[in-house]
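Re: the request from the purification team.
They wanted to know what the chain is likely to look like in 3D before they choose a buffer screen. I agreed to run a prediction and write the result into the notebook, where they can find it.
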Amino acid sequence: MATGMWTSVSGAAAQAQAVDVVANNLANADTNGFKKDLPAFKEFLSTAERENEIPQINPGPIQDKHLNPILDKDQSHVVVRGTFTNFRQGPMKVTNSPYDLALQGPGLLEVSTPQGIRYTRHGALKVAQDGRLVTNEGHSVLLASPGGQAAPDADVAARFINLQDRGPISITPQGEIYADGNLVGKMSIVEFATTDTVRKVGLQYFENKDPQGNPPFEAKNTVVHQAMLEGSNVNPIEEMTNLIKANRLFEHDLKVMKTYGEIMGREANDIGKL
């Protein structure tokens, strides 16, 4: 009986985490460059997780683990294995600011942070007091390096984009920056063979967890649009539907837990009187 109880408990806990993920997506429906998250679930079949062993005679009280692994079909539970990011393209909107840029395609803008190299789709840039081209948080936008590979930390400063005392700038669809008609450099816009190792750090930054196995390379399928920003790829109607679904599943699991509690209570109080 206890296994059915814990199946519903694990389901309720998983749906509660799903509600948190959906709520965070809805909260960032208007955040530029935001990419929605999706929860990843895994179902465990306890009978499949256990090794095939010869049953042993148990002289003590019978517990769930002693039940027949073939006939005990309700020993299962679900857990949230984390979240993954949906990199679907967000809508474009015109800002008319020469330092804003929107990426169309799978590319990511490479920036330098105190924690190391990070990547972002949020193209609201500005010029710092020392002339560096930076993000809203003050992280330096980097020049492209050969092959799109990230340079060693000691060489990152050499890749800063300096716009000190330069005139109006223009940015080409390939990410090349021109000031007063002169080429300043090409921004580092990279792509990945797979986004499985690209994990979100905060709301608008990403980190490559496996730079050796999944190295970045120079973007080939990404177009840069100057004076535009990419909006959030969150669809509020879709997320509200997901929120209602998760809440109803959560309530369903609570009802199952209550039912099992009542059955176990009757088992202990009524059957025990016989």
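For the purification team: The radius of gyration is 27 Å.
Please add any questions underneath this entry.
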